[in-house]
Specification:
This protein is an all-alpha fold and 485 residues long. It contains 20 helices and 2 strands. Helix content is 69%, strand content 1%. Helix 4 crosses helix 5 and helix 5 packs antiparallel against helix 7.
Length: 485
């Protein structure tokens, strides 16, 4: 495999032909792919800890205080009942408003540490920031049963603290990849890394249900917490902030990575060009795309069970694998998309900006189309699930689009840029579902079509904006950023 060891943007400007012939470092047993696998494990833990409460909440509530779910627009589809085990865990009389605050409180902590996380990762190194961030989330997860017994307020506080810990993960990971990911391997390495988020959701949703059934809801937090502690031990022992500080990396791989990045990284870490960052049009293109994509993502994540239950008469709480299907599809397409994106770029047949825009358009317009189509399936719940799964799956392609574009335009400041875009992208998780529920007070199919149309419209706008203003080359302020007095 032949690649360019200097800036691949220069290669793209020269007649779109391969402009060098230096072999890459081997993939098998490499430190950069070991980092990708451990990162994948880390994001698996982060998302498993994020979504497990939504499943456990079903068993945490006093059944006598639960609302009646027997009515739906379409005829109900019942699964054979399973015998209940003799659980001894506590249950609580939380009303729907309290439940909403508990489930949404994570995001109020999550949004706080996005930009500080990117700054601290650049200033002090990403390894321990990311490791301690997830460790904090693990510890508070283990304390969840105690907090719940103390009261809803304590549980809300614990979830906010979990969000604060997880808020640094994506910015820190972006900052670490700025030092580890060769330009022409970014899509592969980052999609492997971040695919752990979908994988964690795929595993945690059905497995949490099984744990609740065979044990009780407290073990959901103890088991996933233990899995998180194991990750922290491995991360502490095996990961380094950069190739230069890694003790087991081969000299061939170290040279390959550092040489490929030498023309893309800022010569100093002391000065941050905040004015240039905040006025960068390519950055705001990513902000708009990230915000728009997450609007649809969080709408489905939080309201899909409600739509299936209240409209189609099918409770996906009775079928954990069905609830995980959209995220399984998203994971598969994200992984495949990363391989395809770097193949297109590595051969120098397509410029980075063209690949990023193409994957963003397909990964945002595709979900919009199938989301709207799901609203016209009426009571055909099988077709509705198929369309919603395709919608979420196609969204996985955006992982090789705008989602890693921060590293293309400013690798030295990728963590800070990700912190900025993810701050805006967290807002849909806080307000999108609230707006959607306010539009579906009567729970009619027509009302839900309105929700789907709004989400699709926002997706289309984000794709169009990014297509117009997105860039794929390192911005001048991101390289020549020495502070001149």
């Amino acid at each position: 495999m032949k690649v360019c060891l200097w800036s691949h943007q220069s290669c793209h400007r020269m007649l779109a032909q391969p402009c060098c012939s230096v072999s890459t470092a081997p993939v098998l047993g490499s430190s950069r792919y070991s980092l990708a696998i451990l990162s994948c494990y880390g994001f698996f833990v982060a998302y498993a800890l994020r979504v497990n409460l939504s499943v456990a909440m079903v068993d945490m509530l006093n059944s006598s205080s639960s609302s009646n779910v027997n009515s739906s627009v379409c005829p109900r589809h019942y699964n054979p009942p399973r015998p209940r085990h003799n659980h001894t865990a506590s249950v609580y009389d939380w009303d729907s408003e309290t439940q909403g605050w508990i489930l949404g409180s994570f995001f109020y902590g999550y949004i706080i540490t996005q930009i500080p996380g990117g700054y601290m990762a650049r200033k002090y190194g990403a390894k321990w920031l990311l490791g301690l961030g997830i460790l904090g989330t693990v510890i508070f997860t283990l304390l969840t049963p105690v907090a719940a017994d103390l009261g809803a307020g304590y549980l809300i506080a614990v979830r906010v603290l979990e969000g604060i810990g997880e808020g640094v993960t994506f910015p820190a990971m972006h900052a670490m990849w700025a030092s580890w990911a060769p330009p022409l391997e970014r899509s592969k390495l980052l999609t492997i890394s971040y695919a752990g988020a979908q994988l964690g959701t795929v595993v945690a949703l059905p497995l949490s249900g099984q744990i609740c059934f065979y044990l009780d809801w407290t073990y959901v937090f103890y088991i996933f917490g233990a899995v998180g502690l194991l990750w922290f031990v491995l991360w502490s022992l095996l990961v380094s902030n950069s190739p230069d500080s890694h003790k087991r990396i081969s000299e061939v791989e170290r040279t390959y990575i550092t040489t490929s990045l030498k023309n893309e990284l800022s010569p100093t870490s002391d000065y941050i060009p905040w004015t240039s960052i905040l006025t960068s049009v390519p950055l705001w293109a990513i902000v708009v795309a990230h915000f728009s994509y997450n609007w649809t993502f969080y709408t489905l994540l939080t309201l899909l069970p409600t739509y299936m239950n209240d409209i189609l008469g099918f409770s996906i709480k009775q079928n954990g694998m069905l609830s995980a299907l959209p995220y399984l599809g998203c994971w598969l397409l994200a992984m495949g998309g990363g391989q395809l994106a770097d193949y297109l770029r590595e051969t120098c047949l397509l410029r980075t900006v063209a690949v990023r825009k193409a994957f963003t358009v397909v990964g945002m317009i595709g979900p919009a189309v199938f989301l709207v189509a799901a609203g016209y399936t009426d009571c055909n719940y099988v077709l509705a699930v198929v369309f919603l799964t395709i919608s979420s799956s196609l969204g996985g392609l955006s992982a090789s689009g705008f989602n890693i574009n921060h590293l293309d335009i400013a690798p030295s400041y990728a963590g800070i840029l990700l912190g900025i875009t993810n701050t805006f992208a967290t807002i849909p998780g806080m307000v999108g579902p609230v707006i959607a529920r306010s539009l579906t007070k009567s729970n009619t199919i027509v009302e839900w079509r309105t929700v789907f149309f709004i989400s699709a419209g926002i997706n289309l706008f984000g794709a169009a904006f990014y297509s117009l203003f997105g860039k794929g080359t390192v911005q001048p302020w991101a390289v020549h950023s020495l502070h001149i007095q």
